[in-house]
Amino acid sequence: MKQKIQVYVLSGFLGSGKTTVLKRIVEECKKQDKQLGIILNELGDTNVENHLFDNEKMVELLNGCICCSIQDDLKQTLDQFVKNPVDTLLIEGTGVANPNEIIEAIANPSYIDQFELRSIISLVDASNYLDYQSIFSSSKEIRTLLKEQITCATLIILNKTDLISEKKLEKINSQLRKLIANEVPILHSTFGNISVDELLKKRVRTLNLSQAEQNSSCSCNGSEHDHDDHDHVNHAKIKAVKLENLPVFEKKAFEKWLKGLPKDIFRGKGIIQFKGENSLYSFQLASRKLFLEKVEADIKQTPVIILIGNDLNSMSIKESYEQTFFNRL
């Protein structure tokens, strides 16, 4: 009998640490000599993290969210993996995707003999969770989306616990436990440092298509999506702003500019170059913290900055960028 492709879905709001966990799973699967497939979904038209998975069979779903505007693309991609099977398929949705849409696609009767959904892993950013749940600092759409991502999970990873107090941690645990079944584990982590054995456990017992369909309501209005070359409006007015044709930055000036960006920016990432450095750097902005890492010299990615946030004023951000850097040159 033909072996089914084992599927793991990674979910979580912007900046929660999905890609870090994805890397851990990829590394372990490679150690086990498993044939691996990856589906990466991005809101914008550029994936600045594809260099992390250069040697894997990866499909990028860009310019939209799996949950609405590119549902057909997801189904076509699943069909590709049916024709060219792998042992394990990892699916990472955008930070604003409702995982139930992915579950619905996998649960389709036409795939019953092809795919085995083993776990739906949802990452929660402990450092921002209480703010995202507050009616004073968050929107109803974001609160609804977070609930969708949490309630469908078979494993919750409460990430970045090192950034909060024990008192806040207890409060978040209590709130999460009210949303999920008793058998769903809540594991604490920093930098997604979770045992791979825990990540790869089979946690989905039954796959109910009707339940997935019932819970797959999209937080956005697909007809209102704006798909021009640079800005993409999605759930809760989430927008990705793309900056291209970058200069070579002075490191301190770049860091200062990032710190001065609007607080509505949940996530930033990109490939950049600093003065005095031959190497390119990958930058990650999450939880208002900046992380920099040198990338391989032969990376094919052109330097670019992606900023993602709620109802961003792209014109204002671009003006700030041009005034800060191009007036210096």
Automatic annotation (TrEMBL):
Q: Which Pfam families match?
A: cobW (PF02492), CobW_C (PF07683)
Q: Which reaction does it catalyse?
A: GTP + H2O = GDP + phosphate + H(+)
Q: Where is the CobW/HypB/UreG nucleotide-binding domain?
A: 7-180
The keyword Transcription appears for this protein: no
Specify the CobW C-terminal domain's residue ranges.
243-320
Q: Which GO terms describe its cellular component?
A: cytoplasm
GO molecular function terms attached to this record: hydrolase activity; nucleotide binding
Which residues, by range, are in coiled-coil regions? none
| Gene3D superfamilies cross-referenced by the UniProt entry | CobW-like, C-terminal domain (3.30.1220.10), P-loop containing nucleotide triphosphate hydrolases (3.40.50.300)
CDD domains in UniProt: CobW-like
* Recorded family membership: Belongs to the SIMIBI class G3E GTPase family. ZNG1 subfamily.
> Per its record, how is this protein called by name?
GTP-binding protein
